[in-house]
Every structure is written in C-alpha cells, then in structure tokens.
Amino acid sequence: MKVAVTGAGGRTGSLVVQRLSKRPGMEAIATVRSVASKTALAQKLGCPESSLRVVDIAASPSVVTEQLTAALAGCAALVIATSAVPEMLPKPEGAPPGPPSFKWKEGQAPEQVDWLGQKLQVDAAKQAG
C-alpha cells in the first residue's frame, strides 16, 4: 500500500516514513517543503529519490493543490505531519517573568500551516482519489 506523508522532513514525519518503509507491503511517499529537505531526508533515511516529493505548504493555494495532487496520485492513505514551527523571541533584559513570546516565518503562521495548509492537504487527497 502506498502512503503519502506530508511534513516528512520534521521529527514526527521522518519517523512515520522510517516506520512505514520497514513494513512489508508499504511504500512511503515523503513530502517535504524544500529541495534541501529532500536531499537531507534522502541521506538520513536512505530513501530513493523516487519516493520523495517537494511540496511547499506555504506557497499559494493553487500551487500547493497542484503539487499535492501530483504527490498523492496513487496513494491509498495520507499521514499529515505538517505543523507551524515557532521561533521563541528573546526576552528583553530586565523584563518581568512571564510566558515566552513567539514569531513565525512569513507565510508559516499556525493559521496558514495548521489550518489552511492541512485543509489543502485533505482537499488534494480527495481530488487525487
């Protein structure tokens, strides 16, 4: 069975790909956000290039849908392991104690990645069949 894993360049996604690849009868199609992540994942897991796809979840919705639909073609299942990755902001010197503050890269805030990006993934999976 062919299973697509989005967010395969992250900790959870790479573990899912690794585990799926060890199971008889399973083929993992790993999607990552960049060519650099694709190269790193291929080296880390020893994945063949044919099982890796670049899909930039932060791109425009039409581009994401097109890339995802192509990546999901022939897959029987989808594992969504994408998530927004925050960067903790340093506290100013002498600031009172309190919860940390975060920022996200442009176009990669939780709403874009965790809500809209995952909705696009589900819609693309439906479109791919």
UniProtKB/TrEMBL annotation:
<feature type="domain" description="NAD(P)-binding">
    <location>
        <begin position="7"/>
        <end position="87"/>
    </location>
</feature>
<dbReference type="InterPro" id="IPR016040">
    <property type="entry name" value="NAD(P)-bd_dom"/>
</dbReference>
<dbReference type="GO" id="GO:0009507">
    <property type="term" value="C:chloroplast"/>
</dbReference>
<dbReference type="InterPro" id="IPR044163">
    <property type="entry name" value="SARED1-like"/>
</dbReference>
<dbReference type="Pfam" id="PF13460">
    <property type="entry name" value="NAD_binding_10"/>
</dbReference>
<dbReference type="InterPro" id="IPR036291">
    <property type="entry name" value="NAD(P)-bd_dom_sf"/>
</dbReference>
<dbReference type="GO" id="GO:0016491">
    <property type="term" value="F:oxidoreductase activity"/>
</dbReference>
<feature type="region of interest" description="Disordered">
    <location>
        <begin position="88"/>
        <end position="109"/>
    </location>
</feature>
<protein>
    <submittedName>
        <fullName>NAD(P)-bd_dom domain-containing protein</fullName>
    </submittedName>
</protein>
